[in-house]
Amino acid sequence: MGGALTHDFCPWANRYVYWLKSPLALLSIVALVGLVIGLAVTPQGYWVFGTIVAVIALGIVWPRVAMAGVRASVRFLDQRGSEGAPSRALLSIHNRYPWPVWGLRLERGFYPRDTSEMETELLDSSKPKSELVFALACVPGWSSADFEWQFVPERRGLYPLSMPIVATSFPLGLWERSQRVEVLSQLLVSPRVVALDALPASDGHRWSLGALSDRRSGTEGDIVGTRPLRPGDSLRHVHWPQTARYGRLILSERQAVQSAVVRVVVDLAAQHHTGLGDHSTLEQSLRVAASVCHSLLAHDLNVQLVLGKRRTDLASGKRARDQLADLLATLQVDDPESETFARELAQQQPSTQLCVGISTTLGAADNSARLKPKPGQFESRGQGCLLIAPGITTFEERQRLRQQHGAWCVIAADRSALDDFIPEWQEVCRDVWCGRQ
Asked: Which residues form the DUF58 domain (predicted)?
């Protein structure tokens, strides 16, 4: 019975009747009824008509007069941020007129909305068309004030996402008056990153990331020679027997780690991704890619990041990590062909180069012939895939999908499940990268 009372039997008529949910529309109908009663039945209907018109006029004029002298600006005190991490923001408001402004709200530009929500708002005018950031009880007349708050971005991007506004509908909520907010600085929000400390150790495989070079001197591996101490050298590498023989400080020269290049390929095809917002497989794929790239760059490895048809070379260091954050924060998905990911992953590469693909279970099923590893493929080409799977909750499901698609890891699409990627990555480094699988 309850379902029948709440079921929408005529959804096609919503766009024609939803305006009746507005208080202004209801008061207008009541005023019209009072006018008809005053004309046809009794003069007391005019009192009802006049009272309702006065209430409507108050609800429309008051917000317009209150907002006439308001000027506002917003700026972020932090230039960079990440998903789920608080950032400081500052709203400055100046009221030039002597009367106060009540019920002031900051809206728009801070919380991303999905396409389905925007389509629903077009049909249902009773739903709010902008997300409320926060509200102020009162801004006194002839005053300037700054309001600082902690803003927690839900999704990557350049904030504010759209032009923010300050608005009020005080005192009756019949009419809303708004002013645009001047944006003085923006916040660049990158995908959430988890720390992946594990990396493969050198075990003799041709594609090991820990390979050492005899042609370059460094601080790793075996001793390849000696030389006199130079200004700035560490005393930890002093060769004491040679120092005692020559009567001066002699340093040991060891092997240097080769600068390996790792290709990280992300599948951006729209038909391979599901979900909306920060729970979508696309956003989770970018978070996984950012975490893998951060881990590799932190270990002084060069990375080639392939996003659809776009290739970006990242050298090791902090500058490369900032470049990675900027790239993923402002990435606009161009919906490449479904074969782009498989083509990039199957591209011929040097035997010492590792290639990590990041896709979904839909992408793996679509390109199973190319993505599923063959016997000995990891050892010969150093290639593997990380899969994002929506709706998985148990370890058994992950193991089944991992064996079915021949993937290194299977990660849930939920942003909170990104922490489960850490032990899975450690298992990959221990078992797959070091050749024990």
From this structure: 227-339
- With contact defined as beta carbons under 8 Å apart, do 310 and 289 qualify? no
**Strand stretches in 242-285, DSSP E:** 250-257, 261-266
Q: How many residues does the chain have?
A: 437
In a 10 Å sphere around its CB, with 0-12 CB exposed, 13-18 middle and 19+ buried, how is residue 289 labelled? Answer: buried
Is the distance from CB of 58 to CB of 171 less than 8 angstroms? yes
Question: Final residue of a domain: which of 190, 206, 238?
Answer: 190
Q: Which helix (H) or strand (E) holds 334?
A: none
pLDDT tens column, 331-358? 987 655 656 776 776 665 555 567 888 8
Question: Smallest Cα–Cα separation from 426: which of 127, 217, 195?
Answer: 195
d(CA 2, CA 210): 66
Question: 171: cis peptide before it, omega within 30°?
Answer: yes
Per-residue pLDDT at 89: 96
Kindly report the CATH number assigned to the domain that includes residue 97. 2.60.40.10
Bond preceding residue 390 cis, omega within 30 of 0: no
